[in-house]
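Intended use. Records like the one below are meant for learning the mapping from a protein sequence to its folded structure. Do not use them to infer anything beyond what is encoded.
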Amino acid sequence: MKNAVIFDLDGTLLDTLQDLRNSTNVALEQFGYKTRTLEEIRCFVGNGVKILMLRALDIEQPEQCALFEDIFAVFQKDYAQHSNDHTVPYDGIIELLQCLKDRQCRMAIVSNKPDAAVKQLNEIYFKDYIEVAIGENEAAGVKKKPAPDTVYAALQQLGIQVEDAIYIGDSEVDLATARNANLECLSVTWGFRDETCLREQGATELFHTPQEVWKKLKTILPEPDMKSE
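Structure written out for the chain above:
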């Protein structure tokens, strides 16, 4: 039986796309670059905000744009101020987390979003449910997803073994992260990648609503403790 769930954040628990798009376009527009549509941003996210900005500029390396660091700094400043303007939990997420909490399931978030933003958003939306929230912090030597480092760090903080956890995410990055951490991955289709993309990347367990996820999880979590106090 499993007793812990490791969640991705963007596209899995929270719809953050509009705020990411807005901050990306603030930076692009300030330096005279063409702005990006919501669907373009949807395709660019998943590997962290620096990669998001590289893709928005249609380059592969920062050295290909002399202004990259300045553009990225504008994005970071704007997103720090506006990361929660339009961001909301997906329908059914809070109910899913409550069901997991009722089963005494331990929960954590691992994300390629900057660590400070991950912790802030977790505090705003999920502090009553999710104990650990870890974002990108490669400066501290923790490799971002799809490396398993953040997953292992989360499990260590929870005091949970790998074999007792399951991973839930919405992208090819999450599939690779789960494989690298030796975790079963439940792929959700309400986020930033569609079912076709996920299947092409090897997804075998796909879920279209949080209610479907709960139907799966309740079969592999311990039964609730019905003993009276």
